[in-house]
UniProtKB/TrEMBL annotation:
Domain GH16: 64-342
Family named by the database record: Belongs to the glycosyl hydrolase 16 family.
GO BP annotations listed: carbohydrate metabolic process
Species assigned in the record: Bradyrhizobium manausense
A GO CC term attached to the entry: membrane
Name this polypeptide is given: GH16 domain-containing protein
């Protein structure tokens, strides 16, 4: 972008907020300008308050920044890369199917296609996470026999050979974050928990806030309304490189009664960190800083089964096996308030996705901070959010802080690089978020874009005997991560063989010997295509090897 265009663009942002937005797009070869038409935002009401307006009563001195009424279930999935919430199987922005001390915390979002596409691109249809009447239900229950078939291999190797439970967890790290300082932030939800007398032991729902930086080796602040099947605890945990250095806890509180309550957390530094329930002060930690690690934080909602002991209550497998309904956390809305006068940062421009070949490389140069946020002094934090164990450089036990292997960020040049030339790991989508904030108690919505690693085809040389019946599954040899559907084609098959794109199967009976050049093509839902050339050899039929000798 030359200096004249840049100057005109910045001027347009300064003079007319509804002017054309400008986005940078990068296809690995060039950058281009992307214009987004202006639009008129409608007022959003969350829990009776209007986004952007100052509150009164308990909320006097605060402005509502963000929230969700759960009129729909807007989660990230194969066809919804920009969903508001990320399903997860871990406390932090972790990976679905995590099998550490969380025990039975397998996430059961309804869009999943099963571990490593075990269901051949068709959503499994778990009903453990759903919206009805503007209420989000996150359930915890036994898995059905059909559902168990789509759990990960590790899931199916514990608890007597099968992991029989489903849980539900979502987080907001791709939609909303906040940065409490001496200027307080209020984070809250209106929710109800299944009655404590009906909850099997080991039910472990929670409303948590967590620093954005940690993944599976955390450094940051964790504030929880954390429960066992009978009651709730208000907890503060400070992590440093995976070790817990502070643990303040109050409770238990008995609000697991099947009725809706409003749980409000007031986070600040240099003062009291507080929990209000239905507008009344329930607990506080006097003089406990809410953000000792100086990081943006996000909100996590979880309803899972903890295969361990929490607050003196041990998990009871038999109780879950006997339960016909399991347990639940229902959420009517969540909200985030900032101190009035403090900025709610939103990106002013979009950043286009970067498409990279499976074994290729590419880069994205972020727009200048003044262009991106309207203020050159905004502090930024850039991160890849792990989503699924089949994504690039992901496994069930992946550990990294900001970026997985192959992705890096240079703050000086504002350049995010993707280098997959080593040709190992999974294909698929990496979700990048950029938070913008100031050390003033601000709230923020991140820039979001994806680094899409193209498909991988692993089919090797094939062979068959003339006149013999033959079939080969190409579908499982083409990896697109969760970027479904994957579109396959096979060209050059010997006579007598055909390829069914709907099943991914080569089948038939070759009629003549010889060697054919075979081209297998695989495309993902971003339009990235990979071709692999191999051979198909049809050899003479060996009569002696047939049982009937002919």
């Amino acid at each position: 972008m030359n200096s004249t265009i840049a100057a005109l663009f910045v001027a347009s942002l300064t003079v007319i907020r509804s002017a054309l937005y400008l986005g940078l797009s990068n296809d690995g070869l060039r950058q281009r300008l992307q214009f987004i038409l202006p639009f008129e935002e409608r007022s959003q009401i969350v829990g009776g308050a209007v986004i952007g307006q100052n509150g009164s009563g308990f909320y006097a001195g605060y402005t509502l920044s963000w929230g969700d009424e759960f009129n729909s279930l807007d989660i990230v999935g194969p066809a919804n890369a920009r969903g508001k919430f990320f399903p997860t199987g871990a406390y932090h922005p972790g990976i679905r199917g995590n099998t550490t001390s969380l025990g039975t915390a397998f996430d059961a979002d309804p869009l999943t296609t099963g571990y490593k596409d075990r269901n051949r691109g068709v959503a499994v249809g778990f009903d453990n996470m759903s919206v009805s009447g503007s209420v989000l239900r996150l359930a915890a229950r036994n898995a059905t026999a059909r559902e168990q078939a789509f759990l990960t291999p590790t899931d199916r190797s514990i608890n007597g050979g099968v992991r029989p439970h489903l849980s539900a967890m979502i987080h907001t790290a791709g939609a909303f974050a906040y940065y409490p300082t001496t200027n307080a932030v209020i984070i809250e939800m209106r929710a109800r928990f299944s009655p404590r007398l009906t909850n099997p032991a080991g039910f472990h729902p929670a409303f948590w806030t967590y620093s954005v930086a940690p993944v599976l080796n955390p450094t940051g602040n964790e504030w929880d309304l954390e429960c066992n099947s009978q009651g709730m605890h208000f907890s503060n945990i400070v992590h440093t490189s995976g070790a817990i250095s502070t643990d303040n806890t109050a409770g238990p509180f008995d609000y697991m009664d099947g009725a809706f309550h409003v749980f409000s957390f007031v986070f600040r530094n240099g003062g009291n960190t507080q929990l209000y329930v239905d507008g009344a002060l329930r607990s506080q930690f006097a003089g406990v800083d809410s953000n000792t690690k100086d990081m943006p934080s996000f909100v996590l909602l979880t309803s899972h089964i903890f295969n361990n002991t929490f607050a003196g209550e041990a998990y009871d497998a038999a109780a879950w096996a006997r339960s016909a309904t399991g347990a639940y956390l229902d959420v009517d809305w969540i909200r985030g308030w900032r101190t009035t006068g403090v900025k709610h940062w939103k990106p002013l421009v979009s950043v286009a996705d970067l498409n990279v070949d499976y074994d290729g490389n590419g880069k994205i140069v972020l727009p200048d901070a003044r262009v991106l946020w309207g203020d050159a002094s905004v502090t930024e934090f850039v991160q890849v959010i792990p989503y699924d164990s089949s994504e690039p450089d992901m496994t069930e036990q992946t550990t990294f802080t900001q970026f997985p292997e192959g992705i890096s960020y240079d703050a000086a040049s504002r350049t995010i690089k993707a280098d997959f030339t080593a040709g190992k790991g999974n294909a698929g989508r990496s979700h990048v978020v950029v938070y913008g904030y100031k050390p003033d108690g601000s709230t923020m919505e991140p820039v979001r874009f994806s680094i899409n690693r193209g498909p991988r085809v692993t089919t090797g040389p094939l062979s068959a005997a003339a006149s013999d019946s033959y079939h080969h599954d190409v579908y499982g040899e083409c990896d697109v991560g969760v970027m479904m559907p994957k579109i396959l084609s096979v060209k050059g098959l010997p006579r007598g063989l055909s390829f069914d794109r709907s099943t991914g199967l080569i089948s038939g009976g070759p009629t003549a010997t010889g060697v054919s050049k075979l081209t297998i093509s695989c495309a993902n839902n971003a339009g990235q295509t990979t071709e692999r050339t191999t051979t198909f050899t049809v050899h003479a039929h060996d009569a002696a090897s047939r049982p009937d000798g002919g």
